[in-house]
Specification:
mainly beta, 8-stranded parallel beta barrel, 10-stranded antiparallel sheet, about 15% helix, 43 strands
Length: about 700
């Protein structure tokens, strides 16, 4: 029953929210999973994975005989899978062919046989009540008849609302014509099985999606990035697969890595949760979905699950609003050092580690890491394996030459970056300094403060976006300050960093030319251009006059990426004249949980899978009267919708998968209308509120926190 409440209309939502974008309706962000038939019936896999975390399910593989007929045994138990999928709003596609050579297709795709074979595929769709066909012809099976086959199949399926998709390998990209690509509703990019040490690194995913989007001009909404739920290890010249669930069952902590060494000495390369989540962020920013090969390989029902990691990333309600990558430094990986201790000697010394070459420090996931110790400083670094996670213990330098730990030239960097780490101090009563600059390095040795050997001084230093400093002089607390535009330091406070204590530090940095937003502790913060925020143990740090947005030092040009930081201790000469006295090198600091969070921004960030939908007639430009959203109470969110005329509209709330979680039909009055949507049962995450009327379609993206 409708109830008009004056010129402002009301309807129902709930919870804290964050507005992300306006004026767009979002196409469905896909999560596509392949389900092979490993037993005599698909029904054996009915409870093997969570249907609610998918948008599309590809059952694999159906293959015909030389006459184009499909054996009935291939579909045993499929009806039960289809029924459960449809109950969960998941579309099911039959996937044909597969990675192995299927020589019968060459004959079936000939002009003389093609129409009859297409009719048999359409009959297969009808027989099993599925939603379309997925074409996984690979290698030599992609012949000169491929384009005609898929275009004619599309022309047959599309009038009845059925889908046509394809699985595409990078190595056969030149065989896929633009006409063939146009026939597909979307494509699944098989960004795995790369020859070499890593079969599916992040870099290969980016190369694959960039090729189809940028080189070939395919719409981002059409690109579904494939991720593997398995790994490979090499035995002689042969590659042997190992399921992700078997890797995590056998090796503690494997879910957070991409490489493990088996007990037999063979090294397995795979994708753990951090890389899968980074690939999901890439797909959110540059594509239209994620595809999984395959669901039965997952560690289902646990926090190790890769499918859960994908969905958690999609619905993340914290961090940068735009999708972001996270590069975490695992200090427990292999080092190139004979032992865990790196100590100063009578000559200066340094050691550099890269993703492929370890020095004293472990392999960084991308970029380089370095330690430096000046001569005769008494300083040292110790990789401490007695804690989880591992930490690096720094004994401070006694002189002006710093003991330095740096991570620089991090891959896929952004001007919008969070650098976070845990700092554990043991510096009671002693003296010295800890300086932490952050900014840009091109990776060339000694090209910057980040990979050189000097301490940051009060002169203009290229590449520095900002720096924070802790001074250990007098009292029980260190003084926190930030580097100012005169290249000196401005005090923030002297009551946060007790000289003995543990501190989770986060530096939210915006070197873009526009403001950027992030969410923390269920609150949204807008960070102006060329500013940074400092968080310590979950508290936003304030300087004089409640200053929280600290200015960059002006040494790094705007829009330059932030890909480096360094941790320097110096001046710890001890305090022999105090009571009690302290010795030189008595300032000890442990560093752990180091990571970079690198935000996609610009056009990539704005897309996030969102696509413009054309309305039948536009009465007012969306930007003139944008749809708005605001929190009314802890149970409701108000949508403000402008209409140039009196008409009916359908207002819906969808999740990032495109699934409707709330819907209502309303009557809009001319002017502004207020609508309330009830989503009390909706979990935290990303949602789209949309108003669809005859004259105008509009939407707004928001986070429910």
């Amino acid at each position: 029953m409708k109830k008009y409440l004056t010129k402002y209309r009301r309807l129902v939502l709930c919870a804290a929210i964050l507005v992300l974008s306006t004026g767009m309706l979002q196409a469905q962000f896909r999560v596509v999973g392949y389900l092979p038939k490993y037993t005599s019936t698909f029904a054996d896999h009915l409870n093997a994975f969570d249907f609610t975390k998918l948008t599309h399910l590809n059952v694999a593989f159906f293959n015909p005989d030389t006459a184009g007929n499909f054996p009935s045994s291939q579909g045993t138990g499929l009806s039960q899978i289809v029924t459960k999928a449809h109950l969960n709003n998941v579309k099911v596609l039959i996937s044909i062919a597969g990675g192995s050579n299927q020589s019968q297709y060459a004959k079936l795709l000939l002009n003389s046989n093609r129409a009859a074979f297409i009719n048999k595929l359409v009959a297969l769709v009808s027989l099993y009540n599925v939603d379309g066909i997925d074409v996984d012809l690979e290698g030599d099976n992609i012949d000169t008849n491929y384009e005609s086959f898929v275009t004619e199949l599309a022309d047959t399926l599309h009038p009845s609302g059925k889908l046509l998709t394809a699985a595409l390998a990078y190595y056969t990209r030149a065989k896929i014509s633009d006409n063939a690509m146009a026939a597909f509703d979307f494509v699944n990019l098989m960004a795995y099985d790369l020859a070499g040490k890593e079969h599916s690194p992040y870099s290969f995913s980016k190369l694959t999606i960039d090729y189809w989007r940028d080189t070939r001009g395919v719409a981002a909404s059409k690109l579904t990035l494939g991720v593997p739920f398995y790994g490979y290890y090499k035995m002689g010249t042969a590659l042997t697969a190992m399921f992700y669930k078997d890797i995590t069952a056998a090796y503690t902590g494997a879910e957070n890595r991409d490489t493990i060494k088996r007990t037999d000495g063979y090294v397995v390369n795979y994708n753990g949760k951090p890389t899968i989540m980074n690939k999901t962020a890439l797909a959110m920013a540059r594509g239209g979905g994620v595809m999984i090969w395959q669901l039965l390989q997952d560690d289902t029902g646990s926090n190790k699950s890769l499918l859960k990691a994908i969905v958690d990333k999609i619905h993340s309600a914290s961090g940068w609003d735009a999708p972001y990558l996270t590069w975490a430094y695992d200090l427990s990986t292999k080092t190139g050092n004979a032992g865990p201790l790196y100590s100063a000697t009578t000559t200066a010394k340094s050691s550099t580690s890269k993703s492929t070459v370890a020095g004293f420090l472990p392999y960084p996931p991308y970029g380089s890491s370095m330690v430096f110790l000046g001569a005769n400083t008494g300083a040292s670094f110790l990789i401490d394996s007695t804690t989880v996670p591992y930490n690096i213990k720094a004994i401070a330098s006694s002189g002006s030459s710093p003991s330095k730990l740096a991570w620089y030239n991090v891959y896929q960097a952004s001007p919008v970056t969070t650098i976070s780490f845990n700092l554990n101090l043991n510096a009671a009563l002693t003296n010295g300094q800890l300086i932490i600059p952050f900014g840009y390095s091109n990776g060339t040795i000694n090209s910057s403060i980040f990979n050189g050997t000097n301490q940051l001084t009060s002169t203009n230093t290229a590449g520095v976006f900002g720096a924070v400093r802790l001074d250990f002089y007098g009292g029980n607390y260190a003084t926190l300050s930030f580097r100012n535009t005169a290249f000196g330091y401005t005090t923030i406070n002297s009551n946060v960093f007790n000289k003995v204590g543990s501190y989770d530090v986060e530096l939210y940095c915006n070197n873009a030319t526009t403001a950027q937003s992030y969410t923390k502790n269920a609150t949204t913060y807008t960070l102006p251009a060329q500013k940074f925020n400092i968080w310590v143990n979950g508290t936003l740090q304030q300087g004089a006059a409640s200053l929280t947005n600290f200015s960059a030092s002006g040494e790094l040009p705007a829009d330059s990426v932030i890909n480096s930081f360094t941790f320097n201790t110096s001046g710890n000469s001890g305090t022999p004249a105090t009571t009690p006295p302290t010795l030189a090198n008595s300032l000890q600091a442990k560093l752990s949980k180091v990571d970079f969070k690198l935000s996609f921004m610009g056009q990539d960030a704005l897309e996030m899978g969102a696509r413009t939908m054309q309305s039948a007639a536009v009465v007012a430009k969306p930007e003139e009267h944008p749809m708005k959203v605001s929190m009314v109470s802890d149970r409701q969110v108000k949508l403000t919708i402008y209409s140039a005329l009196k008409e009916h509209a359908t207002v819906i709330i969808t999740d990032y998968f495109g699934k409707i979680v709330s819907q209502n039909n309303v009557g809009l009055e001319e002017g502004y209308n207020e609508v309330l949507m009830d989503v009390r049962s909706v979990l935290s995450g990303l949602y789209i509120a949309s108003s669809v009327a005859a004259s105008k379609k509009q939407s707004i993206k928001f986070k429910k926190i």
